[in-house]
Design a protein that fits this description.
single chain, alpha+beta, two-stranded parallel ribbon, 4 helices, 9 strands
Length: 206
């Protein structure tokens, strides 16, 4: 098990060995207090404006067999980079580049920056994969598409599982069914072209 450390080399070693690390004094108490206060303010404002998103309810299957969830006590706040300088400061914290870069290399993209206020009474949630735009986990020995095989070139192959190896062109017919978001990824897109994220129209805008 990883133990609390302020040694960056040890933290990287823990990442390699355990898949996680614990950093001592990563944030000052003042910085944590500012972020907590700003988050609480934003959560109240979104509830007052009728814009809040709640989950943690019971899961169910709809008529198409898709998994849904009833609203629950937990509140999620999306796109924190747009909701306070204190959140942007966390994203560009030097430890982010050091530790994430140690695992992924110098070229990586921040795909989301959100918060989940977990209140009492929420339904149990099992282990799952949030990266729904990536190939799903499979058992060892099973044929699958590796994330590293996905390029930034326009997708032109469908391998029978709804997985396309590349970026879906904006001019294609699925544009009628999808919203197209241009993301600058808070300085984490280290390429010369913008990253395009396609999200289903039926899903909640984040």
């Amino acid at each position: 098990m990883s133990e609390l450390t302020d040694d960056l080399a040890q933290a990287k070693s823990d990442l390699d060995r355990f898949g996680y690390c614990l950093i001592a004094q990563a944030l000052t108490l003042d910085r944590v207090a500012v972020a907590r206060q700003r988050l609480a303010e934003q959560a109240r404002a979104e509830m007052q404006q009728g814009l809040s998103y709640h989950d943690g309810g019971e899961r169910f299957l709809d008529e198409r067999g898709r998994v849904g969830m009833t609203p629950g006590p937990n509140q999620r706040l999306w796109m924190l980079a747009n909701k306070g300088e204190c959140f942007r400061e966390l994203i560009v914290h030097p430890l982010v580049d050091e530790l994430v870069g140690h695992v992924l290399g110098t070229q990586f993209i921040l795909s989301t920056g959100s918060a989940n206020i977990a209140r009492p009474g929420g339904a149990r949630m099992g282990l799952h994969t949030d990266q729904w735009w990536m190939p799903q986990p499979v058992r060892p020995g099973t044929d699958h598409v590796k994330p590293a095989d996905i390029s930034r070139q326009p997708a032109n192959q469908d391998h029978g599982r709804g997985i396309r190896h590349g970026v879906m062109p904006c001019r294609s017919s699925p544009a009628k069914r999808y919203r197209v978001h241009r993301m600058n990824s808070m300085r984490r897109n280290r390429h010369d072209v913008p990253t395009i994220l396609l999200t289903p129209r039926s899903s909640r805008a984040r």
